[in-house]
Each structure stands twice: as structure tokens, then as C-alpha cells.
Amino acid sequence: MTADGPAPGPIRDPAPLRGALSRLNDARLAPEHSSARLAALLAGFEELAAVLPGEDRRPGAAGALAELEALLSEPGAETGAAALREYLEPILERLIEALLDHPERRLAVYGSLLPGENNHHHVATLVGRWVEGTVEGTLHDRGWAARQGYPGFVHGGSGDRVAVKVLESPGLTDAWDRLDAFEGEAYRRILAPVEMKRLGTGAEGETGWRVCNIYELTDRARAARAPDRERDPA
Fold it and tell me: Which of 226, 208, 229, 204 shows the shortest CA–CA distance to 217?
């Protein structure tokens, strides 16, 4: 499968994806072009290739990835490895996006970015559609926006669900840096499966899971209520 191949259908069971998504979220925490980031991307890609259904989703990459990891760990290879990491990182990211049907175009919203809420103007200009859904996790009275009535989200597999609306927009690909800066250090953007309604083109489209971006409280924000900040509530 290539990044320009047919779009995958909805995910029926998100459970097998949890390990891969955890690795991909770890990759986001690592510095760009670092060995830790590439290792997490490689591991996440390999797991996705193994668990996603359909022959076109299984590139058979395990052997090639093992050889690449061995090459990057050879003594004296750091200079060449750094260049190789810089080259491979965006390629892997594009392949992962294709395997997951381009989650960079989806943002699950549960707070003030929702239509009608305080900070909707940050996404109001993005052309797309809103789809209702739910995501596994809980809401907590933490984060810098909690004192304005907007609890923060923590992803988890406890069985609890949080209602969200998913913005599907190709314009999000150019908006992430701006949105990340707005959310600040109390939140980090992760990938999470969201059960979305009306995935089809009609009013009665099917329900299924899609991997989406969503902002989660950081560990520091979960530990204690963050102080008020002199800016719009999130």
C-alpha cells in the first residue's frame, strides 16, 4: 500500500491498535530526528502493519525494519545514522498516516473549541465537517482552563467514555503548530481511537472507529490544578 492508495475503511475494533498508538504518541514526545523518535515510529509502524486488517495494509516490513534498527545501532555509525533518521522520519510518518486513513485531518474536541464555545474561533475558519463521537477516557478538573469550566481529558481504557465532536478538515494539517501553541504545556496532542457516527455520506451513515488527534492533560497538569493564565480559556 502507498500513501496515495485506496482509503482504509472504518476500524471495527480499536483494541489491537492500543500498543501501536502508544508508541506513536511516545514518538511525539521525543526530539525530532532522534534515535528514540525513530525507534518509536518504527515500532509503531511495524505493529500497525501487523494488526490492521487487509492485505493492502500489511507491507511485510518486519525484516526490513529489523535490519534498519541493526544498522542504526552499529558502532561509529552515528553521523550517517543522524542523516538517515532525518530522511526516514517523514517517510515513516507519511506511511503511518496512510495506514490510519490520515488522522492529521481529524481533531476530536471536548471543550471550548466546540461550536458555540469560547475558543471555537481557533478552528472556525477551517473548512470541513463535524461528526459526533465518543472516546475512551475521563474528564478531570485540571489544566489551566479548569477554572473557566473546561475540564481536561485523560485517555484510558477503563471503559468510561467522553462525548466529543470530531472536526474533519484538510486544513488541520497546516494548523497543528498554531493549535499546539494555543493549548500550551498543560496539554499534549495524542492519537486515540474515536467511535464516530455517520461515517458515510448520507444522514444514516455507518458507525465505526477512526484514529483522531485529541488534546490530553500532561502528567504535570494531572498532578495539580494549574494556575489561571492571562489568556482565553481553553
Answer: 226
Rounded to whole angstroms, the Cα distance separating 192 from 17 reads: 9
In a 3-state reduction of DSSP, which class is residue 143? coil
Residue 226: the pLDDT is 44
Which residues have CB under 8 Å from 138's CB, separation 6+?
153, 154, 156, 158, 160, 162
Between CA 66 and CA 70 the distance in angstroms is: 6
Consecutive H or E run containing 135:
strand 129-140
Contact predicate 25/191, CB 8 Å: yes
Three-class SS state of 167: strand
Write the pLDDT tens digit of every residue in 149-207: 678 899 986 778 999 999 999 999 999 999 999 999 889 999 999 999 866 555 556 78
Tell me the pTM: 0.80
154-185 in b/e burial notation, b at 16+ Cβ within 10 A? bbeeeeeebebbbbbbeebeebeeebeebbbe
